[in-house]
Amino acid sequence: MNRLKNSCGAAAFIFILILPVLICVMALSLQASQILLAQSKIAEASEVTSLALSALSEERAQQEVSSYATRVLKHYLEGTDDVKGQATMKSSTFQFQTELMGEATHEFWFKHKPQADTFKVSGASTSRKHKPQPMDVYFITDLSESMNRSDPSRLTIVKDAIRQVVSKLPKESRAAFIGYNTENVKLSKRYIDKRTGREITSEKPTDLQGPNVWAEKSIYDYLTGRHPDFIIENLFSEALSKKKMSPIDKLLEGYVPPDLDKKIRNFEKKYPFYDISPTADLGSFKRTIQSNAINANGNTHSWNGIIAAAQEAYRQPSSDFNPQQVFVLLTDGEDSKKFPKGYYAPLCKKIRNDISDKQNRSQIQNSSVEEKTKVTMSVIGVEFNPYKNEGVTECFGRENIFEAKREDELVKKILQLFEYEMGSLGY
């Protein structure tokens, strides 16, 4: 019994001796937990604030970046007395970057020395916002007979979708319309007097308008009579720009003055559409797209549209050439005449490489810009699964092929192609 009492007494004595140590350890543990919690919270607040700064317009961020950072940090760290934010912003051609340093002062839960009642924690974060880049978008549109099917027609769906998408493009962007079926049609930049069949040489706009004036069109068929190796090798040379026919020369065969106007009307009935070169006048572009003159007939030869769009892009002067080049092939069926198997991939590789190497206007305006021209190529099937068209799958890659059945779905798919280019946040 005495031994038990002695043991209890010894235990009590030892406990009394180590109690202050346990209290100190507990206090230090609580303080360490408080510091870690505060550090975690300031780090989280810094990331949130950094992203909030990136969401500001560049102009506003330049004016009040640090004061805005402090306000956001205080709101996030509600209940903390002393909060400061110091932010800097770096801007480049393609993005602006925000670097934030946040600092907060907290009171210890357990105060033991007046001079050590508080502690400071800090957090840093960097976020980047990719600037909306002006882009050139080429809508390579199937104008074959099958585009008239459905109600509304597939062509109507495509035209209405293009008009919506164009309204959402970044500033200084340009849009182009490249139509194709059995052929590709372009304005030849020549004006013909229907009464005489002669070219009008005047440059006065009033002389190039009126019922007796015809804006000549040229017809192209890039594959017929040519080997694919020749096409790929000469893709951007004059050798591939030879017309299938010179319309006015063809129409003047057996020319009798009263017949010329009728011949032109028949020609226009067969070829009512023509390519629209890249233009920054998006209002005029949308009105032209809506025109009934763009209708569908003939068969599907997608390579005519792909080649025509690539040539249109390549011939653009660098002073107008935007840093983003986007090619969107819109089709509702397989090619009736196929580009030979195995040649689609080399064709599209050359398009990507040569256009990417072309100097753009951002590089001209700022010699420090090192980024190459970005080229995006995608296919969207309209009420059609594009995977069935082996040629475009080989050319564009399976990851760049989509399908849309409705107008709103088509608009969404096209805009998704622009998501990165039109600006996004990251950290």
| Helical content class | 25-40%
Silhouette: elongated
Kindly report the spatial arrangement of strands forming the biggest sheet.
Answer: 8-5-4-9-10-11
Terminal-residue CA separation = 71 Å
User: Which spans of ≥5 residues are poorly predicted at pLDDT below 50?
Assistant: 422-427
Q: Give the mean pLDDT.
A: 80
Q: Structural class, from secondary structure content? A: alpha/beta
Helix count from the secondary structure assignment: 12
Beta content: 15-25%
- For the secondary structure, the number of strands is 12
Along the chain, the helix and strand elements come as HHEEEEHEEEHHHEHHEHHEHEHE
**Main pleated sheet:** 6 strands, mixed
User: Radius of gyration over alpha carbons?
Assistant: 34 Å
Characteristic key phrases:
427 residues, four-stranded antiparallel beta sheet, 12 strands
